[in-house]
Amino acid sequence: MSTQTPHHRNVTRRSDICIVGNGAIAKTAALGLSQAGHSVTLLVPPARQDAPEAATGGEQPWDVRVYALNHTAHTLLSSLKVWGALDMARVAPVDAMDVQGDGAQGGHLGFDAFGAHAGSLAWIVEDSNLNQALDAALRFAQNVETVTGRACRIVSSANDVEVELEDGKVLAAQLLVGADGRDSWVRGQCDIGIDYRSYHQRAIVANFSCEKPHHNVAYQWFTCKEGIVALLPLPGNKVSLVWSAPDTLADTIMNESLGELAIRLGEYSEGKLGLLKPLQPEDVKAIPLALVRPHAITAPRVALIGDAAHAVHPLAGHGMNLGFGDINGLLDTIAARDAHQGIGDERVLARYARARKEDVLLMQLATDGLERLFGANLEPVRVVRNLGLNLLDKLPLVKRRLIAHAMGR
Predict the structure, then answer these.
(1) What pLDDT shows up at residue 76?
(2) CATH at residue 349
(3) Could you tell me the residue range of the domain that residue 119 belongs to?
(4) Where does residue 11 rank: exposed (0-12), middle (13-18), buried (19+ CB within 10 A)?
């Protein structure tokens, strides 16, 4: 990112805030900031030529990308009138969690909504369902304009920040928000360094029908050699798989049929869920996993949110929830700024960074620490971690504190 004195170029659009990104976090931020009274430009990339077309007619296939949204996400989306626009027939509440350790004498840890004094622990929502609701809300948003194009340069000055597009357009704003994912272009343009750690795993995601009812329980198995297996409840007798598998196992799984994958899952799930069968039409994806910790989440007139600001292991299912927490933090910080401070004032952005530091750091330490702990294939470590799970399961006060934090309370 270059810093210079503006030379009165032709600005195509000027707004209070420019957001770069096309995912749920970028769209939610656009809605939240516009409903707070700010004019917003949402810059989205051109549609990919190989992007699948949306299904028309009949029941929409179940999306393999799902999120376990916590109470922070639920409250924010409800306040923006997005939660009520979701297709609730495709949303499943999580009423309990069943976590199993590894080995024949594996430990056990259970959480339930009753013990957490909540109606539900979380809600499983498809990426497509969430984005369709957000797109519908954006069509009626008064202060948001969506611009399609590819950014090529960011220029920051004392008074504003400009985003130059490949087609020659220039978008100017008081604040630029980078919500463009783990490989953020905005972050790179700002020369923000990162600490990167590959987990040498891929998240295998697919959907299955199950023979036995899941009773809205989310199951998770820490298997050490084979990674972490999670089966999340979908409406009806259906579950969504998120298997954080080592790269070599992921290669094998992706070369097999989904029927063969269902047989593999039977080793963990058959006693609880019975026979699993792939949902039709069959679909499976593999997503590389890594820990990404930027050295900063702000730059002059720039704030990062979502995966651009932090990417964590999916074993706790809270990557998306951290992004919603970022939006809350940014909204609160901007609303609480002094009257003489602009939206992109460095002191305002510094307060945003401080507000998010603890929550993000705790989630990074928890997910990375658990991945390291359960990835260690040493018998003494195996014994200790299983004992730890069993001990934690017998400490209700500690369990309530943990689950309250996970729920975003």
Answers:
(1) 97
(2) 3.50.50.60
(3) 6-48+63-407
(4) middle
For residue 55, is it within any domain? no
Total domains, the chain: 1
Q: Are strands 40-44 and 13-20 parallel, antiparallel or unpaired?
A: parallel
Q: Is residue 53 domain-resident?
A: no
- Other Cβ atoms within 10 Å of 105 Cβ, number: 11
pLDDT band at 8 (very low <50, low <70, confident <90, very high): very low
Burial of 392 (0-12, 13-18, 19+ CB in 10 A): middle
Which tokens hold the place of 54?
A: 């949306």
- Per-residue pLDDT tens digits for 121-168: 899 999 999 999 999 999 999 899 999 999 999 998 888 999 999 999
Distance CA(337)–CA(351), nearest Å, equals 9
